[in-house]
Amino acid sequence: MITISTNQRQLSIRPTAVAGSFYPQNASQLDALLDNFLSGSDVDIPPPKAIIAPHAGYVYSGQIAANVYRNIEKLKSRITRVVLLGPAHRVYVKGIALPSNTHFATPLGNVSIDADVLIELEHHSYVQFSDAAHEQEHSLEVQLPFLQKVLNDFTLIPLLVGDAEPEQVATILKELWGGDETLIVISSDLSHFLDYETACETDSNTTRLIEKFDYKNIDSKQACGCMPMRGLLKLAKEKNMSIQTLDLRNSGDTAGSKDRVVGYGAYALFNGLILNEDNKAAVFDVINKSIQQGLDNGMGSGNPYNPETASYPEQLQQKYAVFITLKLNGQLRGCIGTTEATMPLINAVAHYAYAAAFSDPRFKPLSIDEYKQVKISLSILTPATPFPFKDEQDLVDQLRQDVDGLIITKNNARATFLPAVWESINNKQQFLNELKRKAGIKTSESPEKAWRYTAEYYS
């Protein structure tokens, strides 16, 4: 530990422990490597409240981590505090260990620690200061260069989680949760030293547990950071959060052999509802203005309403994939949208409301009389992620009824069902068969590829 005396206070800087091994020690090389990882990511999601990222050497897991950190960069003007939790690998910790340092060092500079908050946490019987636990630990350190790269100035609350109950971790997270200024980061790899095929199956199973917030059935064989992860998942379930898997690979996919691999996953967690009541009202105002403009122009002969994006709240300026559905007397009257987030939410709802009313090829343009009676609903989709499957039965077994939206492809055929379709099809095999018919795929044939997503509904 490096101690520097100043006139104001005594600085205690924890030096890097794994710079030069897990990531470059040279600042310029590290900066260039991070740029390469972040620019190489094409994952585009709304800004999350919490993330789970791997902590192996960057050559192995750096790109997987970048796929979640790239989306944190959108929050750089907002995030001023990061709560970082990781597992203790080198020293046994009963409960949660805090550092007494004022800063953690990386080649990119020093990160300031919120010492006052750490002192306040010590009143919990399972929380104690232990510099020995932090001294050589890599699980927290490897996250710091990414955070320094994608955020502006922030203070750090570093917590090493050892032998701790999910309830204990959840209690600490609840105290530190904060608002938009606080980001929660869980550092964890997945399975360790299995053969490639076994690891793929194990990590896929673990990811399903994570996506279902099933923290009770995740242990150290599935994720080395299971202790902090379980605490986050417990609290996230209580808060009715949503979760999205952004990447799932292992060292056999990145930079290692396939005989003994380590698994890596990147996950983003979002607050319960995308739209609060005020934003919901603003969105449906734009939806109705767009349809009304089409009626005024002669049943869709003009252009959609074009809202001034910058005049709306920041949340409505974020890019989302959306579908607009119209129903008349309980029957579908139009449904058009996209599974890709290509435009700000407020612009997307204007565009697809107009299209659902006047451009759905299955229906005539909406009339004024129908508009007076039609029910309008909005689906906001999470990003679609690859849905690997061995065969059709495996795909059906993995489908989450009432939860998953599904995209399937075969050759040039492609189609999707929103999660809302489960309301009329409550059998998983039938759900898939009907989707194949929609795509023009024979029900006797299996899809080649699949993606899944979830959705929030507003009407």
Question: How would you sum up this structure, described in words?
Answer:
This protein has 459 residues and is of the alpha/beta class. The protein has 3 domains: 269 residues, Protocatechuate 4,5-dioxygenase, Chain B, CATH 3.40.830; 105 residues, Glycoprotein, Type 4 Pilin; 74 residues, Hypothetical protein ph0010, domain 2 (Dna Ligase, domain 1), CATH 3.30.1490.150. The chain is built from 15 helices and 21 strands. The strands form 3 sheets. Strands 1, 2, 3, 4, 5, 6, 7, 8, 9, 10, 11, 12 and 13 form a 13-stranded mixed beta sheet that branches. A hairpin with a 2-residue loop joins strand 18 and strand 19. Helix 6 packs across helix 8 and helix 10 crosses helix 12. It is globular, with a radius of gyration of 24 Å. The chain starts with a strand and ends with a strand. 45% of the residues are buried. The N terminus is likely disordered.
Share of helix, binned? 25-40%
Q: In this structure, how is the largest beta sheet organized?
A: 13 strands, mixed
Q: Given the structure, what is the number of helices?
A: 15
CATH architecture of the largest domain: 3-Layer(aba) Sandwich
CATH homologous superfamily placement of the largest domain = LigB-like
**Cα distance, first to last residue?**
57 Å
Cα shape: globular
- What is the fold-level CATH name, i.e. the topology of the largest domain? Protocatechuate 4,5-dioxygenase, Chain B
Into how many domains do the coordinates divide? Answer: 3
Q: Which CATH class of the largest domain applies here?
A: Alpha Beta
Radius of gyration from the alpha-carbon trace, in angstroms: 24 Å
The assigned structural class equals: alpha/beta
- Strand % is 15-25%
Quantity of strands, as a count: 21
Low-confidence stretches: 3-8
Q: Averaged pLDDT, please?
A: 92
